[in-house]
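Section 3.1 - Work completed
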Amino acid sequence: MSHTDARSVSTPGLMPGQLGTADIIFMILACAAPLGVLGGLVPLAFAFGNGVGTPGTMLLICLVMLIFAVGYVRMIPHVRNAGAFYAYIAISLNKQVGVAAAYVAIIAYICAATSTLGAMAFFSTDFVQEVFGVVTRWELWAAISVGLIAFLSYRKITMAAKVLAVLLILEVVFILILDVLILYHVGWPGLDFSSFTPAAILAPGFGISIIYAINGVVGFEATAIYREEAKNSLVTVPRATYGAILILGTFYVFSSWCLVLSVTPEKLQAVAAADPGRLLTGMGEQYLGEWGRNALNLLVVTSLFAAALGFANNIARYFFAVARDGLIPAVFGKVHPKHGSPYIACLALTSIFVVVIGSFALAGLDPLLNLATSLSSMGAVGLMCLLTTTSFSMCVFFARRGEYSLATIVAPLVAGVLLAAATFLSLKNYSALTGTDSVLVNNLPFLFLLVVIAGYSHGSWLKRNRQSVYQRVGSTSVEQEVLAPSVG
């Protein structure tokens, strides 16, 4: 059989060769919503975490993620599947655990996406009322956003990548301008590096700041989700993984440090605690006037929209991966003949968004205090559990192959231990993430136990009754990049 013939019978996949390193980085950074993190999570870390030590904590967490990435990118040549976590765990541990991981990943990403849409709808309403004096319902902005996301997800992935690139560049450039103005204002005498000392980092509240720091960078692992659509993925995806972590880390550490300098280390905790939600916009108004505050408020909206779009692309590709492997109906694995997108999965996801957001709306619940608060933290904890499991699973995978080295065993093991500790801290201090004393909200993460049981049970049933499907779990892939082009 010629290489061309081999290609023709390979498993149908997503359209290859569409995304370069920069495209994937933009997709990942958009999911992180850097402006949302800087304006929302960082002030909370200032107020209720270790305060001045927050920039140093951000630096430590980024180093942990870099350690994780060392083993993560070494797995790329062995896994050609859009399921990322799911596929890594399935081929490293066993397929039942892989199925459970797929369920957890999908629900965690859905929680992240819907919570982001809720926050975006709230801030859209607030922005329109403050700037134009017009009162609008949050449901209107949620509906518009879901419609736009459905359109962009349905089309070719490069369209979504371009939209995300523009939105991301706008918010990052604006924040960097603000950073420069802060440094210019404080001058050399105002520079203070105590944020990076052990005493500041390990101050009371360190555990809470770790939670917020991890929430800011979780999502970089999705680089592997775009493996099939990447140009020269064996090079592109590792570069994008390291690039996303380094860019996010540099941005968070530098910008949060600038905020510390602007308020001054001595006053930081008190000022942040007084009104954490308006700390960043207050800085915008102080250095750029009223238009600076309004611009920041608008960019928060676009940042959250970009994050929701990025999460939607992640979820659609997870649906595609598990459908292609036979875990859910095959229709969800269909690829659009023109756009190369998993369009049925995108339409299904749109329906899920409508149901979840519509349920909160019909119940008369608040989009920020109820929808965003209850689901964002749950999604973050789910993804942290997957990061931890993936770290340990990589050790198992390489040990079975007899590949013992710093990159294949030590780095994943160290990352796994550190991520497990961070996950424990997240659960222990979960009320700090949600900002509520509600017993129902603060026990939502335990629903993942039911999800794991359901997924593992499904995998066990497949092993007993559907061996052909069971064998495909986590291993179905498109082989075009390892096949030489046909000659003659």
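Second construct:
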Amino acid sequence: MNEQLEQQRPVSCSGCGAKLQTEDRDRPGYLPESAYNREPVVCQRCFRIKNYNEASSVSVDQDEFLRLLSGIGEKNALVVHIVDLFDFEGSLISGLQRFVGSNPVILAVNKCDLLPKVTNWNKLRNWVQQRSKELGLKTEEVVLCSAKRGQGFDRLLDSVSSLRGRRDVFVVGATNVGKSTLINRLISDYSDLEQELTTSRYPGTTLDSVKIPLDDGHFIIDTPGIVYPWRYSELVERRDLDAVMPAKPLKPAAYQLNAGQTLFFGGLGRFDFVQGEHQSFTCYISGSLNIHRTKLERADELYRNHLGEMLSPPAKEDADKLPAWQRHEFRIARGSRSDVFVSGLGWIKINGTEGAVVAVHAPRGVKVLVRPSLI
């Protein structure tokens, strides 16, 4: 009898088309076992949009996401790309331009509330525009915002209104960048979901994307969050996410270092000042992560003996779950204003102008690079 019931169950969400599953609430198509009694049978994300005007995040891997993106360039669409300012290079969708074609792109830069209040916002916007261009993304508009505090959303909605015309709106972004908050705001401003979704079956469409109807017959298309394996947020244990993802404004931590000194960021990463004149380095990382200074010659021994204790997170039982560390060495040119960026962990600003040789140790696969200073 159970086998017969199992065979009668729908295999796909009637809202978004995702394959239904009851194991992982963070993946497309999740619904609780008891929800199979509903009619129509929809996944939890579609159910929350329909009943609560609220979207929740689901995620897919990079290959699946690129498959979902294919074809946008052939449509008449407006693309809203949400990135995390704290993890700008790690959350920007590389190669997005070749998928969107000539369609306009609004770059919504979220989590701006994390920066110090003295930040020059015009310079920050110019930095984002220049950095996006260097990374191959052409933007029609850059909007600095904070999903958590609701800052900048009116301007973002104005930009969507002025650029949308008779277009559908595709919202794209990596995981943990605040995409759901933006989708929920768009829903409340543009769509009478209560009326639309109770008079017809849920109008979601294909494979893991959700179509949210607008009043003019067009749609907001909510795409799943893309999982980028080079970000710390995808590597650490769930209980350690708060340690790497700041919830409060960053408090810059400045260190005067001599060559031959090292900074540990908990047990998750390490910064070595290898060569150069005595100078200052400013760390922009989560305030929940302890920074420990030591001599470079003692760093390897300290890591072996104190990982999971003085150097934590990760906890000792989780240390072996992370990839082995890889060393990245950089020569900082004299007179340059540079950050050493570590995706999902933050960045170290090189304050001196004398030049330096520095190195970062991070789990293999984490994106580490030198960029023009953000602040």
